[in-house]
């Protein structure tokens, strides 16, 4: 036993090594030496062993410090995935991957895929919990993973407008006491109630969230109070909203809250508090650097490089956006309160301008002056607007250009193209890169007929601002007017890519395809157009016209009928529908359309003749006869009406046939006389021109029959041509609105003057000038 021997330090012994003796000696206590060999087996060193050396070398072993003689290392042991712990780890990784994929899909805009991934992550997480219960490791449940799964699922429900499911999921998180700070999610629940317009519950949950957030999170509390104020505005409780916004402006003022506070004061009509709120708004600190910081200096090249690098970085872009948003809110607030804070809107604008001039937004004062001029325009006070805009002619370049642009536009609308052109030139001189000024200049040239030069100005406007849709539209119209249809088509196609649902652009495309003899494409564009403006009667009529040209009468009838339904006063549509029913042998249905045309154009005899013709074709001869008689009373010199009266009376065996036949002969005789007079007047006019040219060649001037012939020709040219059919008669040709109380002239008793005129019907044509009425 070891206890029987004393320690090695008790007695003396001879220390031997393998170096001094090949056969080690036993110790005095009978214990073998540390490097000794017993029974032919070398005992390993028990303490320190030199690297690369062992006592076994003396017995024939080679020097192999790296152990290369032992062969390759054994393969690594494969991980056993069948163990419960490994299965749980793999499942946890899958859940995390699904959450990440759901978030990525949401960022890409694929909301449905994001929801599916979130649901899949929820299913796998529940499977993970069951596995932990089965393995007895329920105490090691990953709460963070469970929270992430539920939170992501609730968000994706809300993004897909599945609000009840989102609220239920949020409720599961909030009620679980194991989740710390879950009460903040009541803000999300309140947002959902706000989207559902359940404003009382939204207020309740915002306040519950506010109670669970400590004062150390000041920014979060301010944002929640801002939401509460917005909800109160939606509920119309402006006093409660004012309380919330005033508290925010005291604790942490910001531009958005200041603007909302002005809106509330405007809603309750408090002038003084509107002024105070506007003053607070313009002095809200934006927390951005001065623009002079980004101005390079010539002294330090290294500093200039740094400034050049940060001039357009994301931080500076954010500063510019914040400043632009502040200017937008200030301008909107000034336009809103200016008419309300003073007796007149002009005085209100002047007060706002003075306040802005004393703030950090000095450059907005000029913009407010231009807004004042635009307000004058809206109130139809054009002189005041012009005077206000003319004040800017001596201001700085930017404002001068804007004012001159508005003046040019005003004069263009008033058709004072000289002044419009002058102010367009002034605006371009102040700012050559102002696209609106270039467009105004091009418009003035367009209306004067100089389309080539107008197109150049529209192109320059596009070079300065490629997103200027007005310049692109006007350029397309210019190309269309010049007959360069392919280039016009290219302009309007580009414009359609920018303005997808613009009705004017689609109509221009359809019109161009129609001119290019591609009716199918024109029909397609018009179909897109009526999907945007389904009640446009002109577009529907155009579709009917195109289908009629293609020979598709049924489709043409459908669109013409729809056009008539929306606008029943279009003569062309009424005429087509009436002719369609006549062609299809439904004359009774055509009558209502021609009667409507008669109401629209009562001085046009052809519509009344068409009504009578429909009665005659449908076999209602008595009604046709009455209609023809009524037409004859209104238009006693209409030969078509008299011919049909003669024919109807002959067919029906009436005694009136002789009277109508006599009237017809007299009317035809009068027309023949008129034709002879017109012909003679034309001959005299031609002879007079020849004689006049001969007398001018001989150096004499004469005013004889040729002069009278010219006057006679000028008067006769205003008379209707007797050879024209009645359909071509215009309102100027037949004054049917005048009904002579004495009846038709051919039936009157002849006076002496009348008798003398009829006896002199075939007198010399040189006296004709005195016979024609002036």
TrEMBL record:
Q: Where is it found, in Gene Ontology cellular component terms?
A: centriole; centrosome; ciliary basal body; ciliary base; ciliary tip; cytosol; intraciliary transport particle B; motile cilium
- Composition-biased stretches, type Basic and acidic residues, lie in 674-692, 747-758
In terms of one coarse class, where is the protein primarily found?
Answer: other
Looking at the keywords, is Repeat present?
Answer: yes
Where does it reside? Cell projection, Cilium, Flagellum; Cytoplasm, Cytoskeleton, Cilium basal body; Cytoplasm, Cytoskeleton, Microtubule organizing center, Centrosome, Centriole
Protein name as catalogued: Intraflagellar transport protein 88 homolog
Presence of keyword Cell cycle: no
Task: Give start and end residues of every TPR repeat.
Answer: 183-216, 222-255, 435-468, 469-502, 503-536, 537-570, 571-604
Subunit comment for this entry?
A: Component of the IFT complex B, at least composed of IFT20, IFT22, IFT25, IFT27, IFT46, IFT52, TRAF3IP1/IFT54, IFT57, IFT74, IFT80, IFT81, and IFT88. Interacts with IFT20, IFT22, IFT25, IFT27, IFT52, TRAF3IP1, IFT74, IFT80 and IFT81. Interacts with IFT172. Interacts with IFT57. Interacts with IFT46. Interacts with IFT70B. Interacts with C2CD3. Interacts with ENTR1 (via N-terminus). Interacts with LRRC56. Interacts with DZIP1. Interacts with CCDC38. Interacts with CCDC146. Interacts with CFAP53.
One of the GO biological process terms: kidney development
For the region Disordered, give the residue spans.
58-84, 674-774
Query: Which organism is the protein's source?
Result: Paramormyrops kingsleyae
What SUPFAM superfamilies does the record tag this protein with?
TPR-like (SSF48452)
Record's InterPro entries? TPR-like_helical_dom_sf, TPR_rpt
GO MF terms here are:
kinesin binding
Coiled-coil stretches are none
Q: What does this protein do?
A: Positively regulates primary cilium biogenesis. Also involved in autophagy since it is required for trafficking of ATG16L and the expansion of the autophagic compartment.
Task: Report biased composition (Acidic residues) as residue ranges.
Answer: 759-774
Comp. bias (Low complexity): 693-706
Q: Name the UniProt key words of this record, in alphabetical order.
A: Cell projection, Cilium, Cilium biogenesis/degradation, Cytoplasm, Cytoskeleton, Flagellum, Repeat, TPR repeat
Q: Which PROSITE patterns match?
A: TPR
